[in-house]
Design brief:
single chain, mainly alpha, 2 domains
C-alpha cells in the first residue's frame, strides 16, 4: 500500500509546521551568516551562511513538493513541474522495491 501512485496521501500538519519553523530558523541563519561574513569572513561565518542557504533551500523545496501534490490531488494544478514529478517517481520506485522485498520475505515464512 505504501507504494501506490495516488496523490491523495496527506502530510501530517505537525510535519508541515516543523518544516515551516525550520525554514524560518534557517533563514535567520542565512541572514546572520551574511552579516557575519561581511564583518569578518572566517570559515565559521561562511559555514553558517552556507548552512542557512542549503537548509532553507531544502525546506522550501520540500514545502513546494507537498503543495504541488496537494494541488494535484485536488485537481487544481495549473502547471506540471517535472522536478517534483521526477522526485515523486523516484520515491515511488524505492517504495515499490521495499514493498516487494518485504512481501517476498513474508511469503517465505508462510510455509
Amino acid at each position: 500500500m505504501a507504494a501506490s501512485c495516488n496523490y491523495d496521501q496527506k502530510v501530517h500538519w505537525v510535519a508541515k509546521l516543523g518544516a515551516f519553523a525550520g525554514s524560518v530558523l534557517s533563514l535567520s541563519w542565512f541572514f546572520a551568516g551574511w552579516r557575519q561574513v561581511h564583518e569578518a569572513p572566517t570559515a565559521a561565518n561562511w559555514l553558517l551562511l552556507a548552512t542557512g542557504v542549503l537548509v532553507t533551500a531544502f525546506l522550501v523545496t520540500l514545502q513546494g513538493y507537498w503543495i504541488y501534490f496537494d494541488e494535484k490531488a485536488k485537481g487544481s494544478l495549473r502547471k506540471r513541474i517535472d522536478f517534483y514529478e521526477r522526485i515523486h517517481n523516484a520515491l515511488n520506485a524505492k517504495a515499490k522495491a521495499a514493498a516487494c522485498c518485504a512481501d517476498e520475505g513474508m511469503s517465505d515464512t508462510d510455509g
